[in-house]
Design a protein that fits this description.
The chain is α/β, with parallel strands linked by helices and 165 residues long. The protein has helices at 4-10, 26-36, 41-54, 70-81, 100-115, 127-133, 152-155; strands at residues 11-14, 88-92, 119-123, 137-141, 144-148.
Amino acid sequence: MREADAVRRKVSLTGQFASVDEDLTGQENLVLVGRLLGLSWRDARQRAAELLEVFGLPNAVGRQVRTYSGGERRRIDIAASLVAIPEVLFLDKPTTGLDPRSRTQVWDLVRRIAAEGTTVLLTTQYLDEADRLAGRDRSWSRHRRGNEPRAEGVRGLERPPPAPR
């Protein structure tokens, strides 16, 4: 753990549930994260404005997060993970519970993040999502691991027999 600080600077996480403050606006949340990461007030405000634009949230700037739709909440949560551009981004089921339009918007954002050089590790329960987003898949099933080039291989897996006692 000697390099824990270095790892923290290179890695970011967006959990399955939103980690932003619902009483703050989207802009206030992003500025807060920027300040916590050591950005100046000016730089934090500038980065927040950039992310709100990129994530299609310019109309949500002055509204409390509690008033956001499900898709807007996911996007502001992912944006908060990108205030400092990480080398590796963990996304835990980023589209669970979203409507089809919001899912597609999140997929587009994930593709953009990856295209800009960030390694994205994504968990999902939707095989179509794995098909659309993955360059390479890894599946785990009861301590058995398999490499599959695409989700088609996962579909053919049968449930493994119970472990011997």
